[in-house]
Amino acid sequence: MIKLLTIGALGAVVMSVVMVEASSQSWFCNSCHIMNPFYESWKTDAHADVKCVECHIDPGIDSFLAAKLNGAGQVVDDLLNRTSFKPSASVSAMACMRSGCHTIEQITESEPKNEVFHFSHETHVDKEYYGLEIKCTTCHSHVQGSQHFEVNTSVCVTCHLIESADDPILQSS
């Protein structure tokens, strides 16, 4: 009996390790049908060489374990057809600033430009504006479309249409 319990316990440990490893691979994210457009856009994004878990799980063992337990629940929900069409995945500034990724210095020095906007990260990063703490994901998100972590410029109006004489962002723009 003890031999059978030991074999069962070892089997459970091995299976757990295999499942944690498999669910940490980016292809696993695409196994849920609602993830297909997000996965396809990630494959062509600047972050395509970064595993999904690197961005969607904050650094630290607590965050890792919580995410894996949450993911197990999501797998069950998917199998029971209880999932919505919009995943609830998020990315925190902690994930963006983890070792080997972005740094505040790199970000504040960059000034992206396009045909319409000239943007200064320095006047936005790590700022609070009318009670709203500005983080990476305040502007960078995947709303919809072909870009995985695009800047949706319609979010700019959240701060920039507030009229105020002491507007720190408008004064520095």
Extended strand count: 2
Order of helices and strands: HHHHHHHEEHHH
Total helix count?
10
How many angstroms does the end-to-end distance come to? 73 Å
Low-pLDDT sequence parts: none
Largest sheet: 2 strands, antiparallel
Average pLDDT across residues? 81
Please identify the structural class as seen in this structure: mainly alpha
| Strand ordering within the main sheet | 1-2
DSSP strand (E) fraction? under 5%
Task: Specify the helix fraction band.
Answer: 40-55%
- Please state the overall shape, judged from the principal axes of the Cα atoms: elongated
Indicate the radius of gyration in whole angstroms.
Answer: 20 Å
Kindly describe this structure.
It is elongated, with a radius of gyration of 20 Å. The protein has ten helices and two strands. Helices cover 47% and strands 2% of the residues. The longest helix has 22 residues, at 2-23. By secondary structure, the protein is an all-alpha fold. It has a two-stranded antiparallel sheet with strand order 1-2.
Sum this structure up briefly.
This protein has 173 residues and is mostly helical.
Topology at a glance:
Blueprint: H1 2-23, H2 26-29, H3 36-43, H4 52-56, H5 61-79, H6 93-96, H7 104-109, E1 128-129, E2 132-133, H8 136-139, H9 157-160, H10 168-172
Key terms for this structure?
mainly alpha, 173 residues, 10 helices, two-stranded antiparallel ribbon, 2 strands
